[in-house]
Structure formats: structure tokens, C-alpha cells
Design goal:
Length: about 80
């Protein structure tokens, strides 16, 4: 039998990558709407929850990517 030379990735790598990408998109849209104020802003518009939640998703995504490097996958 030949040795498998491909390195398998953990599912947490893909979850982290997805969270990081979506978090970056949410932060980008939050920054856009912070600069360009809508015509009829909501009552809590000044808190900018999209920037906070996008940043939170990005941080969790980075943590998942970091943890996935330490996980060994047998295949």
C-alpha cells in the first residue's frame, strides 16, 4: 500500500473560513452604512450592530482556523 500524501483538513477549518468570510462581508456592509446614512434609520442605528456582529463572527472564525491547525485528522 502506498502512503497517502494528501493532508486532510478538519471540518473546523471550513467552518472557521466560512465565518471569517461572512464576518468580513457583514463588517464591510456595516462600514458602508455607517458612512452612508440611510434616509430612514432605525431607532438603534447609532449602535451599528452589523459592525459588532461581523467582527464577532470574524474573531470566532479566526479562533476556529487556529484550532483546526492543532487537530490531527486520520484518513
Amino acid at each position: 500500500m502506498s502512503e497517502q500524501t494528501e493532508k486532510m483538513r478538519s471540518i473546523w477549518f471550513f467552518v472557521g473560513l466560512l465565518l471569517l468570510i461572512i464576518g468580513a462581508i457583514v463588517v464591510g456592509s456595516g462600514i458602508f452604512y455607517a458612512i452612508n446614512k440611510p434616509a430612514h434609520p432605525l431607532k438603534l442605528y447609532n449602535l451599528h450592530p452589523d459592525i459588532w456582529w461581523g467582527g464577532f463572527m470574524g474573531i470566532i472564525g479566526i479562533i476556529f482556523l487556529w484550532v483546526s491547525k492543532k487537530v490531527k485528522v486520520e484518513g
